[in-house]
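Below sits my pick:
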Amino acid sequence: MANPIERVVTALRERVPGLDTAMTVNERVGAVGGGPASSAIAMNTFLSLFPLLLVVRTSGEYRISNFLLWELAYSELVFTDVLWPDFRRENLYEAIREFQRRDRRFGSV
């Protein structure tokens, strides 16, 4: 049985045209050099297909440390005291419930 990440990747490859080609390019770049360049290409490909709507910051930290600043412009941020290794499905559901309670205005007043 595939792990959850592999199942998501497989499902996306089946449903998103062109994703398989983009991921293959990213895998080749990663295999050749790895490092920041391949990570940037992979993240750029992912973010161009799926805009960030919700970002969950764990560990009780209230900073994002220049993490995807441009992409976070219209994202909702949820902060939790739960440490990442202890973050479970129920914590994710709570973050989603909080996201659903918010009034998203996309920059308008």
In short: The first helix runs from residue 4 to 15. The chain has four helices and two strands. The mean pLDDT is 75.
